[in-house]
Amino acid sequence: MKETAIFAGGCFWCMIKPFDQHPGIDSIVSGYTGGHDEKPTYEAVCSGKTGHTEAVKIDFDPKVISYEQLLTIYWQQTDPTDAFGQFEDRGDSYRPVIFYTSETQKEMALKSKQNLADSGYYLDPIVTKIEKAVPFYEAEDYHQDFYKKNPERYSLSSQTRKAFLKKVWDGNENEA
After folding, report:
1. Are 58 and 70 in contact, with CB atoms under 8 Å apart?
2. Helices 103-119 and 67-75, interaxial angle, to 10°?
């Protein structure tokens, strides 16, 4: 039985590749969630008027990759101490959120967040929100698989994120 995970961690361009490289991931879609417009566009979301945040929707096989493993990957792609965006991407549309699709996912996300808070990796509080999933709207086609379609631009857009994550995790990728 397939499951769905939805994660917001700043620009969705930077959130696809880290998950896309693992067995058991059936699909990853860039999109918008958490807002009030029924047909959000990139321009409208960036304006801050829709209430949406950029996110990725991941369909996965839990027999191959667990939700807990996805949570570990998620924490290692974001700055969970920054509620007002991620890295150079600022504003509500870039806020970090784990959108749970079941009560089991909610419990796992809360436990994972507490484990990260207790880990000592961050001195500041972990402020990533954990919210019930709401409608997810697929982003425009040019946003899908951005790292594959535009590798040079992707590389430039992810430099600050990569430097921060290397500093925090420095060889500890599987310890969150």
Report:
1. yes
2. 40
175, part of any domain: no
Please state which of the ranges 9-18, 92-101, 155-164 shows the lowest mean pLDDT.
155-164
In a domain, 116, yes or no: yes
List, as own/partner pairs, every contact residues 151-156 make where C-beta atoms lie below 8 angstroms and the sequence separation is at least 24, other chains included.
Answer: 154/13, 154/14, 154/17
Number of separate domains in the chain: 1
Angle CA(147)–CA(151)–CA(155) in degrees, nearest 5?
90
167 vs 156, more confident: 167
Is the overall model pTM greater than 0.70, yes or no? yes
Which amino acid, one-letter code, is at 85?
G
Q: Which residues are identified as catalytic?
A: 11
- Read off the tokens for 176: 């969150």
